[in-house]
Amino acid sequence: MARAQRNGRQPRREATVDGVPIRSLPKVSLHDHLDGGVRASTVFELATAAGLELPVDTSRALGEWFAEQSASDSLVDYLKTFELTVAVMQSADDLTRIAREFVADLANDGVVYGEVRWAPEQHQAGGLELEDAVQAVQDGIAQGEEAAEEAGRPIRVNQILSAMRSGTRSLEIARLALDFRDEGVVAFDLAGPEDGHPPADHAEALDLLAAEFFPVTLHAGEAAGLDSIRSALIDGRALRLGHGVRIAEDLEEVASEGDEVRVSFGDLARWVRDREIALELAPTSNLGTGAIARWGTSLEDHPFDLLYQLGFAVTVNTDNRLMSRTTLTRELARLVDAFEYDLDDLLEFQLNAAAAAFLPVEQREELIDIVTEGFER
């Protein structure tokens, strides 16, 4: 049953739930792109130093430009903004710096465990070998983790390597991920234009990963619909769905009486719900890319709450913090405001994410304890 909704308003600067600052709560981030989480000030500095053309004259204005360009209701237009961020991520030093800052920003947001995804094949314009690029990011992560520990904000971050689904290098990236499976890389992803580029196009890479028992999470159910999700599960053997919001298209309201809503499940939706396949939902991003256009144009229209009430393993993510001008704290605050969630609801979202993390079961259990104890405090 979906909960009653109220008119949305922007969260206060110090967002709280049940009187508790949301920023102080331990959080788990599963879907966060490295090239979508670069600080605007860093993009401005590196681009200026490299002589790259910028659309504005200040770093503050650049942050606003990213947000305006990304609120286009089109995933294709949304992805164009990455041309600038990727352009300043072509050296080992720059990758290390950006990864270090990425971890620091997560730690400052209360994240205790995160998985950062990025596509190494897009970072070779300066002559970097794939292996050197991955190592540079891992070095930055390690530096960020160490600094966060010293500051009293312990965090652990792992990498997810993405292959571009419109490209031809997925097998190469799959092998790269396997080479680094014990050195910080925990999963494989397909990113980029979703519609027209199904996982089946990358069968050789996905078959290799399955044979090696290596985890896969695929972008699906964002720009494309149920066929995209079906292919991610069948062809990709995905353990999680990147976004997956359009699984709600496989649900049909059959009766409504007062606050009670009866819903009929399609076979695909029932499989995803019953198998507890985590949905890596990113509310603000889903609005900006038009992923929820079928249901409306405001956060209150997002099927997040319906999926939650029906028992799907929903998780909350930022997707691209720069483009959406958001944080995990802000995403949770917006959901609290839209759907009147309380502390127990936010805990449920974090436990779903912790249970779906690409970690050994013992470490997932430890993460669950960290999150639970943090909420209890």
What does this 3D model show about the protein?
With 377 residues, this protein is of the alpha/beta class. The protein has one domain: Metal-dependent hydrolases (TIM Barrel), CATH 3.20.20.140. Helix content is 44%, strand content 17%. It contains 16 helices and twelve strands. The strands form four sheets. It has a four-stranded parallel beta sheet with strand order 3-4-5-6, with helices on both faces. A four-stranded parallel beta sheet has the order 7-8-11-12. It has a two-stranded antiparallel ribbon with strand order 1-2. Helix 5 runs parallel beside helix 6, helix 7 runs parallel beside helix 8 and helix 15 packs antiparallel against helix 16. The N terminus is likely disordered.
